[in-house]
Structure formats: structure tokens, C-alpha cells
Automatic annotation (TrEMBL):
Protein name per UniProt: SDR family oxidoreductase
Position of the signal peptide: none
A molecular function GO annotation: oxidoreductase activity, acting on the CH-OH group of donors, NAD or NADP as acceptor
One family name in Pfam for this protein: adh_short_C2
Length: 240
């Protein structure tokens, strides 16, 4: 019998890497599919791939399915663009739709084949709180909102096969990129923290813990749901 495995896209850095490490620490076998190489070996099986290319995704999943039984998928890879409504162009959508919408769809299609054969599966889509509305995020928020909608559709279609599909909407998360753009001692970062009910920026581990919950085999009665891991930002602003 092939070894069970969870596929994590965009698992080399930031949130994706935290999810990979979380799963590995719990004895799960993991395949990290990312265009970027791992800065340090994580212990996962690494496959370099450009997920904006549909044919590449097909080849990658053929390779994985030939070596493993895919029982978990985390659609984490994504791209963001921050433009005002006036500055948003069709090219913004051309750049975001392939990686934020098409790639998760193809990954889910291919993973579901293996999950159906195995008799169960868990799919987790990493979206964003921007899907609920955030300035300068017309294209990004739109594609992430679409991912939440697709989560519910897939949950309904795959439920008869004992496959659950859920989504996570991260709020501000202190990844390497976030810290580079938002130094902790800057007034902008401090103002952001004051606006968060829990009073802090999240960590990649906060998202990894949520993903681990959805991916657990014993968690088989939650599907089609979105969990916003945002310190309370989606329910209100602190102090107002």
C-alpha cells in the first residue's frame, strides 16, 4: 500500500512552511510543491513547480500519485496585488486568477482522485480576510472570495466520498515578508496591533494549527466552513 501523504503548495516559506513543519512534527508525510526552493531542508519531499501553469500541475500530481496516496491537500500558494480601484487593470486579474483560483482547482481535482480511491481526504484552502473587504484589494480580494465560494461547492460535491473541504482566512501574519515591510517598532505596525482585538499580529504557527485541525483524519464532520484566523479583525476593531 502506498504511503499516505499531504500535499502543501507554496510550502517553502511563511505560512506554507509552518504548515509543513506542523504536519511533519505530528508524523505526517508531506510533499511541498513550490516554485521557490526551501531555504533550509524541512524534511518534506520537495518538488519545484510553477503552479501558474496548468500542465505543470498535472505532471506534478501524476508524479505524486505514482509514489503516494494523497489524503491531504493544502492550497496555500498564492499571489497578491495591492491596487486601488482606479489603478486596477485587467492584467491584475490575468496575474492572480491562474495562481489564486485555477491552480487550487486543478490541485483539488487531481488530489480528489487519490482521496476517492483511499476512501477519505481533507482539503484546506488558504484564503484571506481580504475576501470580506479590504481597501486596495479589488483583484486579490475577488480571487480569494472566489476561493471561499469554491470551498463550499467542493465540500458539497466531495462529501459523498468522505472528503472534507474547508478554508482558512488569515489576518495579518508575521511572515518574513510581512516583517520586512512592517518593522515591529514602526508606528504603522503599532497602529495595526491596536486595531486587532487580541492586540497582536498573528504568527504562521497560528495558521498551521488551524490547518492541522481541518486536516486531521478524526475531524470528519466539519466541511464547507471558513475559519478566520485574524485576532478578531473580522468581527470588529478594538477600542471602538
Amino acid at each position: 500500500m502506498l504511503q499516505d501523504v499531504t500535499v502543501v503548495t507554496g510550502g517553502s516559506n511563511g505560512i506554507g512552511r509552518a504548515i509543513v513543519q506542523h504536519l511533519l512534527s505530528r508524523g505526517r508525510a508531506v510533499v511541498n510543491v513550490d516554485r521557490a526552493a526551501e531555504t533550509e531542508p524541512s524534511g518534506a519531499h520537495y518538488i519545484e513547480a510553477d503552479l501558474s501553469d496548468a500542465d505543470t500541475i498535472g505532471r506534478v500530481f501524476d508524479d505524486i500519485a505514482g509514489r503516494f496516496a494523497i489524503v491531504g491537500l493544502v492550497n496555500n500558494a498564492g499571489r497578491a496585488i495591492a491596487h486601488s480601484l482606479e489603478d486596477t487593470t485587467p492584467d491584475d486579474f490575468n496575474r492572480l486568477v491562474p495562481i489564486n483560483m485555477v491552480a487550487p482547482t486543478i490541485c483539488a481535482q487531481r488530489a480528489a482522485r487519490s482521496m476517492k480511491a483511499r476512501g477519505w481526504g481533507r482539503i484546506v484552502n488558504i484564503a484571506s480576510r481580504a475576501a470580506t473587504g479590504k481597501e486596495l484589494r479589488t483583484a486579490y480580494g475577488g480571487t480569494k472570495g472566489a476561493l471561499l465560494s469554491m470551498t463550499r461547492v467542493w465540500a458539497l460535491e466531495l462529501a459523498p466520498h468522505n472528503i472534507t473541504v474547508n478554508a482558512i482566512g488569515p489576518g495579518p501574519i508575521a511572515t518574513e515578508l510581512f516583517r520586512a515591510v512592517n518593522p515591529d517598532d514602526s508606528e504603522r505596525t503599532q497602529a495595526l496591533k491596536r486595531s486587532i482585538p487580541l492586540g497582536r499580529v498573528g504568527s504562521p504557527d497560528d495558521i498551521a494549527n488551524a490547518a492541522g485541525f481541518f486536516l486531521a483524519e478524526e475531524n470528519g464532520y466539519v466541511t464547507g466552513q471558513t475559519l478566520f484566523v485574524c485576532g478578531g479583525l473580522t468581527i470588529g476593531v478594538a477600542g471602538i
